[in-house]
Amino acid sequence: MSDAALPRTIENPLVRDRVTFIETGAESGGAHERVEVELAPGGGVDPHYHLAFTEHFAAVQGLLHLELDGRHIELRPGQTASAPPGVLHRFFNPGREKIVFQVKVAPARRFESMLRIAYGLARDGKVRRKSGIPRSALDMAVLFELGETYTGAMPLGLQKAIFGLLYRIAKWRGAERRLFDAYCGGMNGKDDR
After folding, report:
1. pTM score of the predicted model
2. What is the rounded CA–CA span in Å between residue 173 and residue 48?
3. Predicted confidence band at 2 (pLDDT cuts at 50, 70, 90)?
4. Is residue 101 domain-shared with residue 120, that is, in the same domain?
5. How many domains would you assign to the chain?
């Protein structure tokens, strides 16, 4: 998906982070995506899991906090941890200093598209302030589909049924195309390669 017109660095005011694309799925032939994350104090994401890719975390600066399959892990610079498919995880920064870490997602799938759309919606004020969830159910369904992301708060089958139906409606109503045009330079929505 990489397009020279798209910025290499994006920011999310709700997660309180800045993400720089080190290597996109297009650049790796779809094998993986690598990003560097600068996470402000108090920043982080809610627990979630993915079914189609592994996330590899590597601390670069400061102390990276992870919850991984119910365990609290602290990574110091040079240390790594991985969240394989199906494992509930989150990252966060309870400290007073910015932390920096890298994430490798393998295979790349549509991770870059998902991040660009999610961060664009947050930047444009189209998400709920407290949760970061898109105000539009159709936008939310597109993000769940692209990120192949699920929450631990609801049974997987129910999430797939609800978000699968909403995603089909989103495609039919043009919501997915609108999001790609607005935040991804109009790319085709297939794997980011």
Report:
1. 0.90
2. 27
3. very low
4. no
5. 2
